[in-house]
Amino acid sequence: MVYNRNEDLPESVRNVLPDHAQEIYKDAFNSAWEQYDEPHERQGNRTREETAHAVAWNAVKKVYEKDEDSGRWVKKKD
Asked: In angstroms, rounded to a whole number, what is the distance separating the alpha carbons of residues 53 and 21?
């Protein structure tokens, strides 16, 4: 399962992340989906999908953070 467009992402991602963060999420998810196709390549007992979602969120968190006041995801300041 790969995501071809941001519109294909789960609602739980689309509803909280800005467009650019959705692009990061989509690209990271798709890359991890391909990379971690074999169970021995994943941590613990995670499924391929769980692993790809975890990688995608980590990629987003490198560039974005959740604003404590508004609860929105915003780009980190350099």
From this structure: 14
